[in-house]
Amino acid sequence: MPPPLVDPRIGISWEQFEYQRILEFLRSQPEPQTCDPPEIISTNTENAARHKDHIAQLLSYPELSTQPSLLAELAEATWKRKVLLWRTFPFDSLPAEIIVNIFRYAIWSTPSSFEGVLLRFRLTWVCQSWRHIVVNDQTLWNTIWFKDSKIGYSRSKLFFERAGTATLDLRIEDDDKTRVNPDQPMTGEAMHHIMDIITTKASQLRMLIVVVEMWPPVLVLLDRLHRSSKSLRQLERVEIHRTGRPYRWDGPDYPLSDYHHALTLCNGHTSEVTSLCLNGLHLNWDKCLLANLTVLDLRRMPPDLGPSLNRFREILKSSPGLKKLSLDGAGPVLPTRVARRPLPPVFLPRLESFILGDMPIAYAVFCAGIIHAPSVRELTLLNLGGDDHAPLLKALTEKFPELLILALYCLDVATTPQNARIVARWLLSMPKVKFLRVAGMATHMFSPFFADGRFHARDDIPLVPSPEERAAIEATGPRIILFPNLEAIEVQHINTDVVIKFVRGRLEYGVPLKRLYIHCQWLQKMTDEDKKIFRIFGPNFVIVTLPMTLTPDEELIWKQVRGL
């Protein structure tokens, strides 16, 4: 395999570079013939063999990784050989079962939903044989994206028809780009129209993701799900995102004044739902059957409209297989001081991912104390309130000894000796961390990562030791490195000098990083001078990442965790 190409001047990966070149070449080619003449097939085969030899020769050059011209030559030979092999492969001689499986992989690997939709249609345009295979495979059409309001959802209806009796994964999305009239959010009537389509196959519904702006379509959705609840026997995943304001709904002030109280989810018929995400809306928690969840994701709720603490604990207790818990500007209602009493944390033995965000520090400490989940592998802290997050870090110390992935967004701690001890002890309690993601953090927040664990191993060690005390501590043994197993870091909107210092510091202490990931959006805003600095690490060290994607290191970590 060729090495990854990362050129900060263009900010794309090897795969992106290769993909662009292939598309450019294919667009320059004439329309394919029904069948290539034998002499063309023979010539293409010979050229493919020639490119293969050339690739092997380039890969043998020691200077390959440091010569951009050789990398570009390798890329060109690689994609040209791929195209030639495609053109000589007898694709139509494959059995239909294999062809449709190839089509599924192609469609499911597209980078966006829009491209996946377009590819389905393009496959039906190639030839009569392909059209028959694609149209008659129900699983190619059962993922339906209701985002075609400008054409009366005719595309979605076609998908619905071709999906036949297959289980259905649906996404309803409303945004300015796809609206008939921009700046006019989806109405309740429009949601009624969509639900008229969906409820004809309610018993086949497996996944439902809804992204709308205003309250009326959400209320219509909940009402129609309530009325169809007995048919929703296969519903496993529900995500409802209401992106607009206000967060609260009290009923009479909105067009659908019949709804005077918070609604349930599917009239309580949610025994098969294992994944639930609610963003910007609340439910009648006491009348919702929420158990056996593997994902619970709550976002953007007024503090008094979440589930009560007792109800929240019941939901967690009845979901021992919970793998992801996200509380982002939402969570259980904080009990009053009169009703507050110490309760043992809920044991979640299988929880892998825990997210806390967009909440005051005191509330974050409260939420963290509700659970006992020693097997958590991924922790995310983002956009927390206040300017000193040390109390939360103290509360999290020793809670996640098996942590492997840590993501910190805008974390901040006041620079005091006491806080330096708190941060160091927190980092020391997570010795297995392999991947670190940091974004929007001030320069002083990187100092704790270079602390010597010998000076923070016990509470009786002076916070500011004298020279004699320092010498005595250093004589106790070798330096204790924080995050000794750290292999990779992803940075976003961090001072370039700080990043360079971090990478060099790890090298100096004998625990060098294997990879540095730079978010593509941050890279685009960098100055040319900053981009030049990152080239000193070589092309194999710096990797550009795309939004909403896992890095290769994270993918490898999760595969190892799950024994794949």
Automatic annotation (TrEMBL):
Domain (F-box) ranges: 91-146
InterPro entries xref list: F-box_dom, LRR_dom_sf
- Return the Pfam families for the record: F-box-like (PF12937)
This chain belongs to the protein called F-box domain-containing protein
Q: Which organism is it from?
A: Lactarius akahatsu
